[in-house]
Design a protein that fits this description.
Bound molecules: guanosine-5'-diphosphate, magnesium ion
Keywords: Leucine-rich repeat, Nucleotide-binding, Repeat
Distance between the termini: 71 Å
Helix content: 10-25%
Number of helices: 5
Pfam families: LRR_8 (PF13855), Roc (PF08477)
Organism: Scyliorhinus torazame (Cloudy catshark)
Protein name: Roc domain-containing protein
GO cellular component, one term: cytoplasm
Length: about 300
């Protein structure tokens, strides 16, 4: 409601501006109200927390920049979304969508933010790579088994979340340059990189893949060295002291999270030391690292 004194023209402009945003969240809607579709100038349509099972005729709202359909009961990705060329923000999280047909996302060349978390997606369409303006992508809590390598071509992607899926590996190219700032992949059956590396965050993932690439490219004189043992046994102290060639003291509160990688050289070899967190929750995945080529150092505090 406008309280100021306005000319009739100003009032008309103000009405048009307010009409651009239509908020129909929490209305228990089962179908899209027909009168909405008669307002082609709408730029933001907010429809979260309703009971929509499908939405059709969205193509009539060609000027939409924001479409919020979170927390509905959608079973299919609404194909009309492909006819919304100005869309920048699309929220479809917390629905029951199983698939995104090819040919829809390729139409959304201005899309910056895509939320698809908490659905039932098993894979991703190849044309996701066409959303070149994408800055934020949330695919957490789905059933996705593979991230296509082409996601790495999304040059503006800054935030990417894939927690709670069925991913066994992450594409190395995704972490090779680009402007990714935030990435999480918790609760996946990951082997490459292993869960511990992912727990250490983006920087650890990047250094893991970098190490792998370096290792493959020349005859390896590095010894992969694992420091295992209970929490507070002295693993990090030993690992860092060897790397620095002097006694390093680590404060009790300075706990290792996930895994830390240090390197130290001797005349013949270079030791790549993988210092694991000793906390219980990390034990389960240690076996992934203990390969026949690895040197394993078990650290025990004899005072205990
Ligand atoms: N007295 C003594 N304290 C140690 C020794 N090694 C480690 N500590 C201390 O024990 C605590 C746990 O060490 P840390 O290396 O973080 O153990 P981690 O959990 O196995 O990595 C730290 O406060 C260390 O300073 C040691 O040989 N002697
Ligand atoms: Mg430690």
């Amino acid at each position: 409601m406008c309280n100021c004194v306005c000319s009739p023209e100003q009032k008309q402009t103000a009405e048009q501006n307010t009409e651009q945003v239509v908020d129909l969240s929490r209305q228990r809607l089962k179908v899209l109200p027909a009168d909405i579709l008669k307002k082609p100038h709408i730029s933001q349509l907010i429809l979260d927390r309703n009971r929509l099972k499908n939405v059709t005729d969205l193509r009539k709202l060609r000027n939409l920049k924001t479409l919020i359909l979170s927390k509905n009961e959608l079973l299919d990705f609404p194909s009309d979304i492909g006819a919304l060329p100005y869309l920048e923000k699309l929220h479809l999280n917390q629905n029951k969508i199983q698939q995104i047909p090819e040919g829809i996302l390729s139409q959304l060349s201005r899309l910056k933010q895509l939320k698809l978390n908490n659905n039932r997606l098993t894979d991703l369409p190849g044309d996701l790579a066409c959303c070149k303006e994408l800055e934020y992508l949330n695919l957490s809590h789905n059933l996705i088994e593979e991230i296509p390598e082409t996601v790495a071509t999304l040059g503006k992607l800054e935030e990417f979340y894939v927690d709670n899926n069925k991913l066994c590996k992450l594409p190395c190219v995704l972490f090779d340059g680009g402007c990714l700032r935030k990435f999480t992949a918790r609760a996946n059956p990951l082997r490459e990189p292993p869960d511990e590396v992912c727990a250490g965050g983006l920087q650890q993932i990047r250094s893991y893949f970098k190490q792998l690439q370096t290792n493959e490219s020349f005859e390896d004189k590095r010894v992969k060295t694992m420091f295992l043992g209970a929490s507070m046994a002295g693993k990090s102290t030993l690992c860092k002291s060897l790397a620095k060639r002097e006694l390093v003291t680590i404060a009790e509160h300075d706990r290792t999270i996930g895994i830390e990688i240090n390197e130290f050289q001797t005349d013949d070899f270079s030791f790549l030391c993988w210092d694991f967190a000793g906390q219980l929750e990390y034990y389960l995945t240690h076996h992934v690292f203990i390969t026949p080529q690895a040197l394993v150092i078990l650290v025990i505090d004899l005072h205990r």
